[in-house]
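Hey, resending since the last one bounced:
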Amino acid sequence: MKRISALIILLVLCSLNISAQEKKPINFEHIFDGTFSPNNVQNVRWMNDGRFYTASRGQQVVRFNILDGSELVLFDGSEFVSDDMPSGFLLQGYEFSADEKKLFMRTNVEQIWRRSTREDYYVYDIASKSLDKLTSTGGKQQFAELSPKGNRAAFVRDNNLFWIDLASGTETRITDDGEFNKIINGAADWVYEEEFGFAKAWFWSPDGNKIAFYRFDEERVKEFFMTEWGELYPGLTRFKYPKAGEENAIVSIHVYDLETGQTTSMDVGEEEDQYIPRINWTNSINTLAIRRMNRLQNQQDLLFADVSTGETRIIMTEKSEGWLDVHDDLVFLKNGKQFLYTSEKDGYNHVYLYDMDGKELNQVTKGEWEVTNVVGFNERRHTLYFVSTEESPLQRHLYQIRVDGKRKKQLSEGEGWHNINMSRDYKYYIDTYSNFDKPPVVTLHRSNGKVQRTIEDNSELEARLDEYSFGTKEFKQFEVNGTSLNGYMIKPYDFDESKKYPVLMYVYGGPGSQTVTSRFESGQRPMWHQYLANQGYIIVSVDNRGTGARGRDFEQQTYLKLGQYETEDQVDVARELAGLPFVDARRIGIWGWSYGGYMSSLGITVGNDVFSTAIAVAPVTYWGFYDTIYTERFMRTPQTNPEGYREGSPLYKTDQLEGNYLIIHGTGDDNVHFQNAVEMIDALVKSDVQFESMYYPNRNHGIFGGNTRQHLYRLMTDFIQEHL
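The structure tokens again:
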């Protein structure tokens, strides 16, 4: 009997081994070919009545019935072939007029910086199927948008703001002092666009008769130059970039009245060295909300401005011992008497209800977890919809709650990550749900959470994943420096505990970030990790102190000391990994991009006893080289915190580097300048340290274009396989 049992066990083990061998390997080509890319619903826009939503599909705008999935093509760009558009209209974005009878579309998009573009705009009449260019004067436009009534549009061109009457085609100039590298109207300067997250800097009033806009006077901001390689005599890209401790643009807020043609300046105070990170119209056509921050970004005032006079009053003030984050979770209730706002003042980001004089009426959400975004507020039902980390910092779930803080209910189901897109009438929402080993499933729900239908299940991809040796994430807790840190590990598919494996740690680690999440990932970076796992490497990532979704105190431990505690955590986790029986302690490496490249550069210097290899892609190497808003938020200025800047810089630690180091940068990086790599290399040479480097001519912070990404990942693969 024992012999038979042993034989059965042996057969089962053999069967499992054969099954494992039958799995297809993840190849280098899979990083780029989209084999594991999920299907998604693109550019979803809900229509007014909530019974339909639209999405773009190639050259088409398609309307979908939310209940049965039936569709109607509202616009097909292939039908508009001309000499200017031989392949038809290339759709690159759209919006509806307020009455949903017209589409406002863009094409010929030209990228400027991360969020800014210039393009051509067209108006399409759905009933008559007529397509008309918005304007043919003066070249491409920026940030064009229809008025709430749909009878007007406004846009930015050559740093000036214009509006156009759609019926007559008459174009009216709002500002006339715009000038390159001097004055910007209606668009953000470089640092606001990058760090405050917006490029369009003008906004229609609710009735469409006024426009509120930013004006940036950046004359005093110093210029940065980047060489444009490729010609016999290379050119220069010049733009205003305020580095830490240097002067910013002077920002002012103005309101233009389309009926009178008059512009009124809003009173934002006498202090010029400050920030205006957000402006929002309230539900009143006469009141503009302005958020004002001091340069240290540890105090924020909410101002209400009377747009007819420009007079302002402070509604409320928030202060922090560290810094205050900027967000878009400001909701003015239709009753005109209250607004909702999020704050970390109790230690976690939560929703509060205020009256229009700034008096706190109620803390709507409470607990040791974070509200990550406000989805919407159903005023009729007094119900707030929000996404939070209540289940886990690794997950996101949808909840509903009354504004009195009662009847909180979790609506989303399934452990993992839920992205929510809710209809304007709050009757339905689309949930894009995934887990670390489950590709996205897109479902339509009623507002109570009940599933109406599945829009996309990615069943083919799920079956394909089962055919390949796609590694799963093992989530772990690392106890280091008296703190529990979240991490994950991806082991080789044929992992054998009796063997010893090299480890490659992936790090980002910057303030408020997360790499350890329970969601499906199949972009180039995660697919490279899968490929390396197939080559016999263990992949590990850990969210160090200072990262997000765990409350204010966890995040702000690194204040004035960027790079110090974060590096300690990564090094100590590496030391813990070195003690595992299946890890080759001599072969532990670390890599990262941007802030992650900064961290990997620090890791191989401070942690030279544990890290043998590091790759730094587009790293910051000294915070004095980076911009004012981001750097000073966490570090103050180099003049007031010289020790923090020095201690957090790998430039001053190059003599500690003993392993294999590869630094990579694009010479056209407008964000983290190539200067960072140049200075790091110079410091390494002075310290007589050998290293490897690669620069990509004219490539920006993303280092892409043509064959660039394939070359980059092959370079990194060869370096890892040779040295780790």
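The two ends are 49 Å apart (CA to CA).

Sorry for the duplicate.
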